[in-house]
Amino acid sequence: MTHQEDGVHCIVCGKEQFSLAHDEWMRRAFPFVEQGQLKMCAECGAKYLVCRSCGGLYCRIHPALESWELPEKCPKCGWVNENVKAWDGTSARHF
Predict the structure, then answer these.
(1) Residue 9 has what pLDDT?
(2) What pLDDT, on the 0 to 100 scale, is given for residue 69?
(3) Hey, CA dihedral for 52, 53, 57, 63, is it positive or negative?
(4) SS3 label, residue 53
(5) pLDDT per position in the chain (95 positions), as tens?
(6) DSSP state letters, 54-65
(7) Rounded distance, CA 50 to CA 41, Å?
(8) Could you tell me which residues come within 8 angstroms of residue 93 by beta carbon, excluding any fewer than 6 positions away?
(9) What values do phi and psi take at 35, rounded to 5?
(10) Consecutive H or E run containing 24
């Protein structure tokens, strides 16, 4: 079951308990993660980019992420992350 993005609850499991996460691979793969912060769901392990404006969950980040999955703005406060908006679906660095 997929839950609606609200910037507070995990869209995978619906829970709202998160901890700060560090993922070197995602930091290298996605430039907006390198410049931001990640939180991980305590229940299912899904990772999210943190909104720099409100601290909410901007969007879910996963290895197979495609540009169409990214929101235009934070679902909690409406802030627009220009780095997310500019991402074209390719890595800034080629491994």
Answers:
(1) 97
(2) 92
(3) negative
(4) coil
(5) 567 889 999 999 999 999 999 999 999 999 999 989 999 999 999 999 999 999 999 999 999 999 999 999 999 999 999 999 999 887 644 44
(6) TSSEEEEE-TT-
(7) 12
(8) 28, 29
(9) -95, 0
(10) helix 24-29
| Residue 94, token pair as written in the block | 């080629």
* pLDDT at residue number 91: 63
Contact 15, 42 (CB under 8 A): yes
Segment (H or E) for 31: helix 31-34
Torsion angle (degrees, nearest 10) of CA 23, 82, 50, 75: -140
Are 40 and 17 spatial neighbours (Cβ–Cβ below 8 Å)?
no
